[in-house]
Design brief:
With 476 residues, the protein is mainly beta. The chain has helices at 57-65, 93-105, 199-206, 308-314, and strands spanning 74-77, 87-91, 110-114, 117-121, 124-125, 130-134, 138-142, 151-156, 159-164, 168-171, 174-180, 183-185, 229-232, 235-240, 243-245, 258-263, 266-267, 285-290, 293-295, 301-303, 318-324, 327-329, 333-337, 345-355, 361-366, 374-385, 390-395, 408-409, 412-415, 418-419, 424-429, 436-446, 455-457, 459-469, 472-474.
Length: 476
């Protein structure tokens, strides 16, 4: 295990200005920030200056342990070498697949370069040791022809099923990347990428369809949306620099994967579609989310680990997540745990992020006794911005659902967080049978608070140190 951050592991930690270009690729040889002005890395996201020694100790350990994408030597041009056409009308699904397969077949893999242009395509399935790179001015327009999206194993709101492929998908692959400064546009999929009634999946499970292969959504008379970018059961994933537009559902959805880095990505806050979370790491381990502008019509980062009986069948937590230098522009939680947290969530470090827009909570934790699961060791540090409901909301009775599966919340830790306007600061509740196991806040300043009466119910180990609300020190 590494004891400190390597040069490459600290990429993206540098002086930055909001709205600047995305961070230099992880695969580039970039010096650590703080060495000189010319060597610092401009980053998207919140624009904080972050140096390695300012990273929380627990986060440093996770960053040092996280494996990174390694590029191979083969480089192909999708247009020159494989005949892709960026004319906005030619279907390039088979062409992109051939280019990816050719690079995957080379001894150490490499990069498929997509130059400027507008490329119509169906699903793109990444293979091991392939970097799919979109140059500046390259746009992928995903097709309205659902036959271009094969049926694959996916997860809908925490339940595994067979459904149409996400726009970018990989299953069981190692060392894969989606990089560049181009755009992915899913607006064309709206004709088929729809449906949000999860109840038929739940009824199938109750009827004995225990295996995902028994839950084929297309052809069943039902429909469910699919995620935008979804590496499934993959190891060592890089998603960097790209912009996502017009999502129909969750935008970045690493599932049952490990060693995932999401860096300098922009997701779409303008869509009118609901449930378009910015990033949803689910049942995944060692996930870094940094330098991103996470626009969403729901949660900005929603950490998940499966739902109810199907989540208990898989029983894999999301663990060791680090989030920093991100701009949060959604309408629910900046950092959300759940509600699909049946497999559990642990060791989350989110720091140096800024909240804008209609984001309701800096930290939102939600479960119930039907869902169960746990959220443990969740840390927020140096968050700025003004949530529109409360700074922290911990909800043990989400949607009023009940069952026989107790959950476990806490400990939660806040440090150096501040606002200039928020309706309420703390709204934290456990239940009489499942207390919150620890809540601390240290050196936090909350101004412009309209309701200064905090809510702490069934909370053990409550410690507020140097916390002020409207200039008054509070201890409970």
């Amino acid at each position: 295990m590494a004891d400190s951050l390597s040069r490459r592991q600290a990429i993206g930690i540098g002086a930055a200005v909001a709205g600047a270009a995305v961070a230099a690729p992880v695969i580039a040889n970039v010096a650590l920030a703080g060495t000189s002005a010319s060597e610092s890395v401009p980053a998207a996201g919140a624009g904080f200056t972050i140096t390695p020694n300012a990273i929380p100790v627990g986060a440093q350990k996770i960053i040092a342990e996280t494996k990174e994408f390694t590029p191979g030597s083969k480089n192909v041009d999708a247009v020159k070498d494989f005949g892709a056409k960026g004319d906005g009308k030619t279907d390039n699904t088979a062409t992109f697949a051939a280019a990816i397969k050719a690079v995957n077949a080379s001894p150490d893999g490499g990069t498929v370069n997509v130059p400027a242009g507008t490329y119509v395509t169906g699903a793109i399935q990444l293979l091991s040791n392939v970097n799919f790179h979109l140059a500046a001015g390259a746009t992928l327009k995903f097709s309205g022809d659902k036959s271009k999206f094969p049926i694959v194993l996916t997860r809908y709101e925490g339940i595994e099923c067979m459904n149409y492929s996400p726009m970018i998908y990989a299953f069981g692959q190692k060392n894969i990347a989606l990089t560049g400064s181009g755009t992915l546009d899913a607006g064309g999929t709206s004709s088929w990428n729809k449906g949000n009634n999860r109840k038929f999946l739940e009824s199938w499970i109750k009827a004995g369809r225990k295996l995902p292969s028994q839950r084929k959504v297309p052809g069943s008379g039902n429909s469910l949306r699919v995620a935008f970018v979804e590496p499934y059961n993959c190891d060592t994933v890089l998603i960097q620099g790209v912009k996502l537009k017009n999502p129909m559902f969750w935008q970045l959805h690493p599932t049952l994967s490990k060693n995932v880095i999401i860096d300098g990505v922009t997701t779409d806050p303008s869509t009118s579609h609901s449930n378009t979370d910015g990033c949803d790491p689910e049942s995944s381990d060692h996930v870094l989310i940094r330098n991103c502008t996470l626009g969403a019509h729901d949660d900005n980062v929603a950490i998940k680990s499966g739902r109810d009986d199907d989540g208990r069948r898989i029983n894999v937590p999301t663990s060791n997540v680090v989030i920093y230098n991100c701009l949060m522009n959604g309408n629910w939680g900046a950092i959300t745990c759940g509600s699909e947290q049946t497999g559990g969530i642990k060791n989350v470090y989110a720091f140096k992020c800024h909240i804008i827009g209609a984001t309701k909570f800096a930290l939102y934790v939600k479960s119930n006794t039907q869902r169960g699961g746990f959220s443990q060791n969740i840390n927020l540090e140096s968050f700025t911005g003004n949530p529109t409901r409360s700074y922290v909301f911990v909800l043990p009775t989400y949607n009023g659902q009940t069952g026989s599966h107790p959950f476990s919340f806490g400990p939660f830790h806040l440090k150096d967080c501040n606002t200039t306007k928020v309706p309420k600061v703390f709204d934290v509740s456990g239940t009489s049978s499942s207390h919150v196991h620890g809540f601390t806040a240290d050196t936090c300043t909350f101004k412009g608070v309209s309701n200064t009466s905090n809510t702490f119910k069934n909370v053990d180990g409550l410690v507020l140190t140097n916390v002020t609300i409207n200039g008054k020190t509070v201890t409970k």
